[in-house]
Amino acid sequence: MSAETIVWDAARSALGVPEMDVTHREFVTQVAELIASDAAAFPARFSALVEHTRAHFAAEDANMQATHFPARSEHNSEHRRVLEEMGAFQRALQSGRSGLARTYVRDGIPAWFRQHLATMDSALAAHLKKQGAGVD
């Protein structure tokens, strides 16, 4: 995944927990569509991404809580930070300022997602598999 061509690659990105993999694929698809959006569609699509991300993080937290994931606090801290960033860019968009939000979507989100997937979400997926939670 590069910032310019964020695509879902199951061989590299799937974690083996179907609920997480489906949500991550949806997230990547929404980011790719947002990157390609014209100025008129961008604000609404960004809002949709924020809502999807909130639901995504809430689902992960529910799994972390249910399985007593030891790194839940750190993982949720990262989720809060990302939602705060998204909120700031959403407010900028509502004020008619889209430049920084576009840069964030094109560069910041893909870079963050790659790192988060490889570290925090991989650890969570391993924990869930060990607990037998969410795995087919």
Instruction: Enumerate the spans where pLDDT stays under 50 for 5 or more consecutive residues.
Output: none
Distance between the termini: 26 Å
Helix content: over 70%
What is the fourth-level CATH superfamily? Answer: Hemerythrin-like
Q: Major sheet, described briefly?
A: none
Outline type? globular
| Rg (CA only) | 15 Å
**How large is the count of helical segments?**
5
Strand content: under 5%
Features of the shown structure:
single chain, mainly alpha, Four Helix Bundle (Hemerythrin (Met), subunit A), 5 helices, 0% strand
Molecular structure report:
This protein has 136 residues and is mainly α. The protein has one domain: Four Helix Bundle (Hemerythrin (Met), subunit A) (Up-down Bundle). 76% of the residues lie in helices and 0% in strands. It has five helices and no strands. It has helices spanning 10-13, 18-36, 42-66, 72-94, 99-131. Helix 2 (18-36) packs antiparallel against helix 3 (42-66) and helix 2 (18-36) runs antiparallel to helix 5 (99-131). The relative contact order is 0.17. The model has no long low-confidence stretch (mean pLDDT 92).
